[in-house]
Design a protein that fits this description.
This protein is an alpha+beta fold and 160 residues long. The chain is built from three helices and three strands; from the N terminus they run H-H-H-E-E-E.
Length: 160
């Protein structure tokens, strides 16, 4: 190999660099030993955040169903109430509060949404409350939800 100059090894010469890597592979050791730890450190917070977002949407969907159910219960309770329109609204408030117990953060609001409170009319209410988003986990993320429902008033009963 006379006449060859420079830093390049000869064509048939064996390279000696990477000896430590070669020995660690023979011993069964891998050079990526800490890579899985780094992956867990990076991916664990992302996965936890994803799970928290799923919990928040689940609570929102559950709250939406509960508010709609409370509106239906309130309209039915008010339409069955004998007496005045005020007594019907009080019965609707009680029914909505009982249905939404443990779901809302704060007061349940029931308001008349254009009822025709007479025999054969409709009793229409709108129920709203603030649903705890991630309040269970200590995060103050809440949403106001509103549900509306109507129930017919019996045409053969007396209303005041």
């Amino acid at each position: 190999m006379a006449g060859r100059t420079g830093a390049y090894p000869a064509a048939g010469a064996r390279r000696r660099c990477g000896g430590a890597r070669h020995l660690s592979r023979e011993a069964g050791l891998s050079t990526d030993a800490g890579l899985s730890t780094i992956e867990v450190v990076i991916l664990a917070p992302v996965m936890i955040l994803f799970i928290l977002v799923l919990v928040a949407f689940g609570q929102l969907v559950d709250g939406r169903g509960a508010v709609d159910s409370a509106a239906r219960d309130a309209a039915r309770a008010g339409s069955l109430q004998h007496g005045s329109h005020g007594a019907a609204l009080a019965a609707a408030q009680d029914a909505a509060a009982a249905t939404l117990k443990g779901t809302c953060a704060g007061n349940v609001t029931v308001r008349d949404a254009g009822s025709d409170y007479r025999s054969g009319g409709d009793f229409t209410v709108e129920v709203s409350c603030r649903v705890r988003g991630l309040g269970i986990l200590g995060l103050d993320i809440a949403k106001d939800l509103t549900g509306r429902s109507s129930s017919p008033i019996d045409p053969y009963r007396r209303t005041g």
